[in-house]
Amino acid sequence: MMAMRLLLVEDDELLGDGLKTILSLEGHSVDWVKDGRAADVNLAGTAYEAVVLDLNLPYRSGLQILEQLRRQRNQVPVIIITARDQIQDRVCALDNGADDYLVKPFDTDELCARLRAMQRRFYRVVNTIIEHGNIQLDLSSHRLEINGIPVTLSPREFTLLQVLLENAGRVLSRQRLIESLYGWDDSIDSNAVEVFIHHLRKKVGPGLIRTVRGIGYLIERPG
């Protein structure tokens, strides 16, 4: 699954914290909010690639948020997570624009699988392999091979390499890379990007990622 910018809307502290951790470990950048008003603010100001949305929320319900999204012709994929297990609840949510519906309690592996399926439907991920010289990055299996030899990357190392390869020939600023790796409320070390770049260079070789002083980082287009 390719890394996505996700909005998680869940007011249960324990569940929300667990989901944010698991989805981040999958390589996604996750913004977690705990009520309907905060969800509206985030959706108005940020372009998300998917929303994981509870129905029972303070201030505004998940159904109200969903209805407003679709009235505004915002077609961001939405998966509902809720304790409501009645057929009429499922039908109502799906008829009002939800793309999937998952009843609590659920296995987090199933949530990740449903997000992958939703991503395939909406973003039509066909070519999942990025090739750059002797490098092959398989986005579907999160696998890196160099000269046919597997190289192990952490989820954030993988995401960082993916973003740089997808933008080969363009200098990406440190801020742009931070936004691809973290949600807005994550605690971020001041040198986090530099640390990940350092680890990547040790694994893929020192010459692939070039530092453009005062601007950011660059992977050159293949010659």
TrEMBL record:
Residues 5-119 form the Response regulatory domain. GO terms for biological process: regulation of DNA-templated transcription. It is found in: Cytoplasm. Residues 127-221 bind DNA. It comes from the Bacteria. Keywords: Cytoplasm, DNA-binding, Phosphoprotein, Transcription, Transcription regulation, Two-component regulatory system. Pfam families: Response_reg (PF00072), Trans_reg_C (PF00486). The modification 4-aspartylphosphate is found at residue 54. GO terms for cellular component: cytosol; protein-DNA complex. The keyword NAD does not apply. SUPFAM superfamilies: CheY-like. This is Transcriptional regulatory protein qseB.
